[in-house]
Structure prediction request, 334 residues.
Amino acid sequence: MLIREEMEKYEEEHLSRFASKSVDTRGRERYEEQCDIRTCYQRDRDRIIHCKAFRRLKHKTQVFLAPAGDHYRTRLTHTLEVSQIARTVARALRLNEDLTEAVALGHDLGHTPFGHAGEAALNEVCDEGFSHYRQSIRVVELLENKGQGLNLTWEVRNGIVNHRTSGNPSTLEGKIVRLSDKMAYINHDIDDAIRGKIITEEDLPEEYTDVLGNSKNNRLNTMIHDIIKNSVGVNDIVMSHDIAAAMQGLRKFMFDNVYHNPVAKEQETKAKSMLTFLYEYYIEHIEKLPEEYQCRIESGHSVGRVVCDYIAGMTDQYSVEKFNEIFVPTFWKI
Prediction:
């Protein structure tokens, strides 16, 4: 018996009846011979980890642009924290941990440089609009692997595109990632905002901390235990009303006091303007795009969408370098 088949048998015997079993996948868009060692979801996880878009996440902003310190989250460390939380929940509920991990690791592959500021900039200037969750799917279906995409399973792609707040994942594993994403960013963004002296722990509303806890670890512990407790033996991933309401309250507090705080976001206007200039430049000078992007336009993709592909794939540092190369006179750089 192949190792993969042994693992698939293990899933059938030990995972919850609500779990997404590897043998039941809806499959890939393009047929491939199965691996003799890894299940389909393990293979998807590995493809995501090894792709270029995943590596670039280490140089993309989470919340704070160019923070003064080495301990602030990046888009990559955020992704890893989401994965850790999601895997903990999936394992406790005997769901498919490999599927959960693949979705978690791939959910933000389409994020722009400078976080949501970059996303907002491209959404404003592109006639077709821009959103990072749709771009994440575009990355895995088209942009990676020289235009071939990663050919991921349907379940992983469904989880990636539905990780947003308004999303509705079709698998319980995808639902875990959707909640884990929020638990991760609310708590680690509080941690980073405290480190950046934007807020203090004492500034957090007591009506929420009395329910969730007075530290990052305590809050995460409360939320994770609540999800597990309320989702055992149920064909859904749910939180209790009180915990969900407190989490949503903290999320609103963060939007009001951190995400829209002028101190925390003082560089966002500059970043948005820079990406807007880059977008407009490449719209007018498509010959300056790398060859693979020019080929994509020639094959029928719209100019605006391809320019978004190029800019969204940039890291913070690379976008600054391209801006300087195009717009800043050489003698000013000396």
Observations:
- The mean pLDDT is 95.
- Residues 172-195 form the longest helix (24 residues).
